[in-house]
Design goal:
Layout (H helix, E strand, L loop, with lengths): L12 H9 L4 E6 L2 E5 L1 H7 L21 H12 L8 E6 L5 E13 L2 E10 L1 H65 L5 H18 L2 H8 L5 H11 L4 H8 L3 H14 L9 H7 L2
Antiparallel strand pairs: 1-2, 1-5, 3-4, 4-5
Helix pairs in contact: 4-5, 7-9, 7-10, 8-9
């Protein structure tokens, strides 16, 4: 609702006095550096109860020693018409000797042929406390970030170390099989084995090759729906063995091998493609 003020209402001294006394911020009028008027909020900000404790006194003793020169320069610049911030941080000394952070602004007015300074103060201690709290929280978050980052770096180093250890282990197993097992298998093949013994030896050799080859791992992880028998047959096909040879090794019929072969093609998505199964399997190694 908009209230229309009567003409001359702002000339009512009692009204103006009531507005100033109940203003949100502290207000003081300075003649030079001496206080000639203060409202209640100004007194409250500095911890005084009666304006007689401030009126007639220079404002300089109320300003924090470290801010005196800055405050004096700001008022001078305002009086001389120079640029300055609309509000600036100034510390004042309360009646009990403690410092209070304020945001101050000044305005020059002419009254009865005198140039007076109107000083407006806002208690900023609460805002500063909030800023300090926010700063502490940001520092805490920053510290937590660094800790998490350190943990991530440690985990990355540990994972890399484990991967290297795994590679070293695989290399050791591969070297041991090639150097300590495979030579003896080759020697066994020269001893004139009967057909059944040769089949068993071929199976042992094939399985050892599977251990040291990444083929089985790739085909198993990529096509989990292959049965163990289908994986075996796929391995034999990849090695170039015929259906007849595979049937002999596995002691099954040749037609059973061909049926499994077709199942492998279907599961690998090759049933409608003109590509040989062995060619495709070799491309996976």
């Amino acid at each position: 609702m908009v209230i229309k003020m009567k003409k001359g209402f702002m000339d009512d001294q009692q009204f103006c006095y009531a507005v100033i006394e109940n203003a949100f911020g502290g207000i003081a009028v300075l003649d030079g550096s001496n206080c000639v008027y203060t409202n209640k909020k100004f007194l409250d900000t500095l911890g005084y109860e009666e304006n007689s404790e401030v009126i007639g006194r220079s404002l300089k003793p109320f300003v924090h020693p470290e801010d005196k020169d800055k405050f004096r320069q700001l008022i001078k610049k305002k009086r001389d018409g120079e640029y300055k911030p609309s509000r600036y941080e100034v510390r004042f000394i309360r009646k009990d000797g403690t410092a209070v952070d304020t945001l101050a602004s000044t305005t020059q007015i002419n009254y009865q042929d005198k140039k007076l300074t109107v000083l407006r103060l806002t208690d900023a201690s609460g805002q500063n406390r909030e800023n300090e709290t926010l700063k502490e929280r940001l520092e805490d978050l920053e510290m937590k970030y660094y800790k998490v980052n350190e943990i991530n770096n440690s985990l990355s180093t540990l994972i890399k170390q484990k991967e290297n250890e795994k590679k070293d282990f695989e290399s050791t197993v591969l070297a041991n099989i090639k150097e300590l097992v495979m030579p003896y298998i080759s020697e066994l093949q020269k001893t004139g084995l009967d057909p059944k013994q040769q089949v068993f030896l071929d199976i042992i050799q094939t399985n050892l090759n599977n251990i040291v080859s990444p083929f089985v791992q790739k085909i198993t992880s990529k096509y989990m729906n292959l049965t163990p028998t289908e994986i075996k047959i796929a391995t034999f096909i990849k090695e170039g063995k015929t259906a007849k040879a595979i049937a002999k090794i596995l002691n099954v019929s040749e037609s059973a091998v061909n049926l499994h072969r077709q199942h492998v093609r279907d599961k690998l998505g090759l049933s409608k493609k003109k590509i040989g199964l062995r060619t495709y399997l070799l491309s996976m190694t």
